Amino acid sequence: MNAEKKQPRWKRVLLKLSGEAFAGDLGHGIDAKALEQITADIMQAQEMFDVEFAITVGGGNFWRGMTGAAGGMDRAQSDYMGMLAIVMNALALQDFFEQKGVYTRVQSAIRMPQIAEEYIRRRAIRHLEKGRIVIFAAGTGDPYFTSDNTAALRAVEIQADVLLKGTHGGVDGIYTSDPNKNPDATKIDKLTYLEVINKDLRVMDTTAITHSKENDLPVVVFDLMGEGNLIGLLNGESIGTIVE
Ligand code: UDP
Prior knowledge:
This protein is an alpha/beta fold. It is 38% helix and 18% strand. The chain contains nine helices and eleven strands. Helix 6 packs parallel to helix 8. The radius of gyration is 17 Å and the shape is globular. It binds uridine-5'-diphosphate. Uridine-5'-diphosphate binds next to helix 1, helix 4 and helix 6.
């Protein structure tokens, strides 16, 4: 325990960053401005709190398996391309952190030793204990899954206290219906896992929610780009929507 730092609401955090977050305002590829902000927020949180961060990243800013499948590709082959897209984001994120002097390790679910460690659960935990940020790349390593699934799976494996799903694009939590389509949609502060599933509130894959439920992993959906949101959450403020 670090006596000089504040104790956060959750000590070990699994943060899920979607490909959208990497694309930022560009809408595709990697937006340096977005990565600057995301890494700065995480660093600020690390400075203030006695907190450990593991991060799973998505790849939708480059490729989604479904896109290829819709065009006639073999789904599994297309999904592997999606997992490689995730690796690109993971390496970019690592670079932005390391340029600021933050120690990180990328662990890939598909072996590629020249650029990343392979995923080893106990080693990931050890890195976290040593204060390094662990970035999980290549999803679960299996096709037909998503990075939401990966986030819930890895969070439980490393015994994270919470899964923070950072959204991008103005949606700051879970709504009664899609706020981009329905102006009457209202934000919900707190939900149970079953409510998310039964009301079909598609803010996270159902399998990821089910996995979180079975393992008592609280999930918070929040606006990643909202100023002070990450710090506020660690401070115990009610930000976004909590599912527990
Ligand atoms: N993917 C996969 N298995 C996994 C994780 C991801 O096959 O365990 C593939 C899948 O094709 C997916 C793509 O990687 O579409 C990118 O991930 P995702 O769509 O979840 O990224 P995000 O929506 O978070 O940007």
